[in-house]
Amino acid sequence: MSLEQQARPLIRADNFIDGRWVAAQSGKRFVVTDPATGECIAEVADSGPQDARAATDAAARALPQWRARLPTERAAVLHRWHALILANQDALAALISLEQGKPLAEGRGEVAYGASYVAWFADEATRIYGDLIPQRQRGKKMSAVKEPIGIVAAITPWNFPLAMIARKIAPALAAGCTVVGKPAEDTPLTALALVQLAHEAGVPAGVLNLIASSRESAVEAVADWLGDSRVRKITFTGSTPVGKYLARESAGTLKKLSLELGGNAPFIVFDDADLDAAVEGLLAAKLRNGGQTCVCPNRVYVQDRIYDRFAARLRDRVAALRVGPATDDASQIGPMINLRAVDKIARHVEDALANGATLLTGGRRLTELGPNYYAPTVLGDASSKMALCGEETFGPVVPLFRFDTEQQAVDAANDTPFGLAAYFYSENPRRIERVSRALEAGIVGINEGALSSEAAPFGGVKESGYGREGSKYGLDDYLSIKYLCQGGLE
Questions:
Q1: 372 CB contacts (<8 Å, ≥6 apart)?
Q2: Which one of the listed residues 106, 124, 185, 260 is annotated catalytic?
Q3: Rounded CA gap, 362 and 386, in Å?
């Protein structure tokens, strides 16, 4: 059975507004393609500001009743949604692989990962505590309570089309908020399928609304939410320039923002590291989803004494990776999302080679497989003058930088405006303590390449954004604190 045949029962091509599937009011549609083949999967509603406003109207009508539900009642709906996601894991994984391109095993992993956020926040819904503030004056009682912030607009990227929107919608619904959302134009089908399952789980009409739009229509559609005072929060995962735009344009109504933005993650291998563990950790961190994740290491710093041994081991492992479409069970890396992504990867590699890098493996387009494939690549002798040092490559390219001292490595790692993730490998407990404190990042992997967990706070510092997703802290971004002062008690 093909990926499309597996995914077909869950494919929806219209907007979901007020509990109904509706076409865009303009009647326009856009094509969603399979990055492995370029073939059309579906023609999807191409929404504009009128559709965004209709979604907000529905969310506003549904808000009073949803926020009034008991936390246990909201939790029960989320638990049913979680069960339906897992029951449809194979079809959802096929849909992810079909429209995003990642290998099917990674698609299944993403479904489980996204579902874990729904289960986590279902439980957290029943743990929204306030505080009784110690009395400061006689006859007065002071307390603080947490309330849902209101309507939340969720805008998500293409690289994890299920997990990213699940970890935004789940805490919003758990907190008692209603949601309007827009997935990336490259991968709207997975998000629409997820909303269908939420509807089947009993999420009431108007509580969760999703519109799709092309790249050309998205700006106007989202602008309607930015200017609407009823939308009280924006949660966005994507590039730093777009995050800055959202912050500027929503300032007129002083919305609360959660922004998980670009990264330029360093990966440091000290000479006291377990080299085999470091190689495996780097492969897990860098080549997941073909290097198309925001926490992928973009710069790999290796201490001079072990550089040659590490480079040789990494080269051999990367050269052996199998590249191909998700329809091939042996594929470990799939196509990039589109030709623009491949062009950027090729440009970074060409620039690095022109500026003195050594090609250890890869370094070419795999046109025999299709236009969106690029060979996993390792570059030696990388330097700060190369474009890939300052720009996020977002592809399967591993540049190796030499360093001599610990301080040099830390200084180089922090020499970026971004601060989402950082990694380092060392067996020295004192160094572990020093470096983990010195790295300027919201997430630090210590002898570990796989960082994400629904129980951990995910987010960055500096120009990688603010706010946290997941964990017990993740619910706070969807709540406001109200102070209550009651007098006349004596």
A1: 35, 36, 38, 101, 335, 336, 337, 338, 339, 341, 342
A2: 260
A3: 18
Contact 335, 370 (CB under 8 A): yes
- By CB atoms closer than 10 A (0-12, 13-18, 19+), residue 165 is buried
Would you say 114 and 85 are in contact if contact means Cβ atoms under 8 Å apart? yes
Residue 449 to residues 107, 119, 227, 254, Cα–Cα distance (Å): 19, 24, 40, 37
Q: How far is CA 37 from CA 104, 184, 305, 307, 322, in A?
A: 16, 19, 44, 39, 18
* pLDDT at residue 184, rounded to an integer: 97
Answer yes or no: are the C-beta atoms of 408 and 268 closer than 8 Å. no
CA distance 38 to 17: 29
For residue 490, the model assigns a pLDDT of 87
Pseudo-torsion of CA 90, 95, 97, 100, nearest 10°?
-150
Q: How confident is the model at residue 4 (pLDDT cuts 50, 70, 90)?
A: confident
Please give the Cα distance from 180 to 184 (Å, whole number).
Answer: 14
Beta strand 418-419 pairing with 397-403: unpaired
In the set 177, 294, 296, 389, the catalytic residue is 294
The SS3 assignment for 401 reads strand
Q: Report the mean per-residue pLDDT for the chain.
A: 97
Cβ atoms of residues 52 and 230 within 8 Å: no
Query: What is the DSSP-derived secondary structure letter of residue 207?
Result: T
Q: Backbone phi, then psi, for 368, in 5-degree steps?
A: -65, -20
Return d(Cα 204, Cα 319) in angstroms, integer. Answer: 50
Q: What is the pLDDT of residue 25?
A: 97
Give me the domains of the chain, ranges plus CATH numbers: 3-261+464-483 (3.40.605.10), 265-453 (3.40.309.10)
Query: What tens digit of pLDDT does each residue of 107-120 get?
Result: 999 999 999 999 99
Note if 296 is an active site residue: no
Tokens found for residue 105: 């095993």
Q: How far, in Å, are 275, 337, 389, 399 from residue 393 at the CA level?
A: 25, 13, 9, 10
C-beta contacts of 425-432 below 8 A and 24+ residues apart: 425/268, 425/269, 425/270, 425/273, 425/274, 425/277, 425/278, 425/281, 426/270, 426/272, 426/273, 427/272, 427/273, 427/274, 428/270, 428/272, 431/270, 431/272, 431/406
Q: Kindly state the DSSP code that residue 469 receives in the 8-state scheme.
A: B
Q: Verify whether residue 485 is a known catalytic residue.
A: no
Q: What is the C-alpha to C-alpha distance for residues 81 and 254, in angstroms, rounded to an integer? A: 32
Task: With a cut of 80, say whether residue 1 has pLDDT above it.
Answer: no
pLDDT at 433: 98
Average pLDDT for residues 302-315, to the nearest whole number?
98
